[in-house]
Specification:
This protein is of the alpha/beta class. The protein is built from eleven helices and 13 strands. This is Glycosyltransferase family 4 protein.
């Protein structure tokens, strides 16, 4: 099939450092190419891809040091190019929320839109009702709850390329890992509290966005002055395998309706179990007592720090290979592409794509 993938322009595809949606688009695009599909990737010019690249902005927005830049203007320029070339594709797969809806109304039936963010936000239900012809994909069943009547075609869990995150049978460190963003909803303060209560070292590899700088300085920085706590800062893919693979467990102590949680399956790829709060999609991703523990409070989290030692890292990796590889994700999306290209409407109640 001839497939267009349309990525956000905030990060490179794949991201050089932190980044979720663009990383998933990179894995999906390359996996589709490996399966023989003719894929064109619309993204920032610093992309690395096996697909045919098309870009209208030379560099992703976040790491562009230009003092003033417009994310809206950048995305509209990209969408103009997508619309100009759209007739060449069987399916156009968007990963930019609803930004393309007004421009692609006349061809909504040959598009697919994966929603990567939280949906419990004012104005979103009215928007998705107004443009209800666009087929949507959720990244977890929990993500759908604020908009159950939207035009859902399937839920497709994220997948990643295991070659970038090798399995670590015997970790060389005895620490807990926190990987992601320093922000109130990610709760690095809770991760620090768990580590201190359990008496186990914690390493935090995380970026600080400008919007979270005050939170970092006011809440988190004072907590870093502790012998068990080591703040590393933001890391890239080259360091991620060692960081996750050598940890006793990944802490995922979130305090928001997480739509998926990519870092959980990155840890699982390394064989590292996950200790995660019961929020959002966490219970869909973690098999309690198999790939980690889903907890409700600090006491359970501290107990889980010891309990993860009883879990088999081989089993954690095996579950990852069965459920969360880029190949598995590509197979699921290819099923949807064929339905769309053939004009099949599918079921608005369909859950995880088989």
């Amino acid at each position: 099939m001839k497939i267009a993938q349309v990525a956000p322009l905030y990060e490179a595809v794949p991201p050089r450092l932190y980044g979720g949606t663009e990383r998933v688009v990179a894995y999906l695009t390359d996996a589709l190419v490996e399966r023989g599909h003719d894929v064109t990737l619309f993204a920032a010019g610093d992309m690395r891809t096996r697909a045919t690249p098309v870009f209208t902005r030379r560099q992703a927005l976040r790491l562009d040091d230009a003092p003033l830049k417009s994310d809206l203007a950048s995305h509209l320029s990209m969408l103009h190019e997508v619309r100009r070339l759209a007739d060449a594709f069987d399916v156009v797969h968007f990963h930019i929320d609803m930004l393309h809806f007004p421009l692609f109304e006349q061809m909504a039936a040959k598009t697919l839109t994966t929603l990567h963010g939280r949906l419990d936000i004012a104005d979103l239900p009215d928007t998705y009702r107004r443009w209800s012809d666009f087929p949507l994909v959720s990244i977890s069943n929990h993500q759908r709850l604020p908009m159950p009547e939207a035009h859902w075609r399937a839920t497709v869990h994220h997948g990643i390329d295991p070659r970038g995150l090798p399995f670590t049978r015997v970790p060389q460190g005895n620490y807990l890992a926190f990987l992601g963003r320093i922000s109130p909803e990610k709760r690095p303060d809770r991760a620090i509290e768990i580590a201190k209560a359990a008496g186990v070292p914690l390493r935090l590899a995380a970026k600080v966005d400008a919007v979270d700088r005050d939170y970092f300085e006011r809440v988190i920085r004072p907590l870093l002055d502790h012998p068990l706590v080591n703040y590393i800062g933001e890391i890239g893919d080259a360091q991620k395998g060692d960081f996750l693979g050598n940890a006793r467990a990944l802490l995922f102590p979130i305090d928001w309706p997480e739509p998926f949680g990519l870092v959980m399956i990155e840890a699982m790829a390394c064989g590292t179990p996950v200790i995660a709060w019961r929020c959002g999609a966490v219970p869909e991703v973690i098999d309690a007592g198999v790939t980690g523990w889903v907890v409700d409070d600090l006491e359970q989290a501290v107990a889980a720090v010891e309990a993860v030692e009883s879990l088999s890292r081989e089993t954690v990796r095996s579950v990852f290979e069965q459920r969360f590889t880029a190949r598995a994700m590509a197979v699921r999306y290819a099923q949807l592409y064929w339905q769309i290209a053939s004009g099949s409407r599918g079921s608005s109640r369909e859950g995880i794509a088989a």
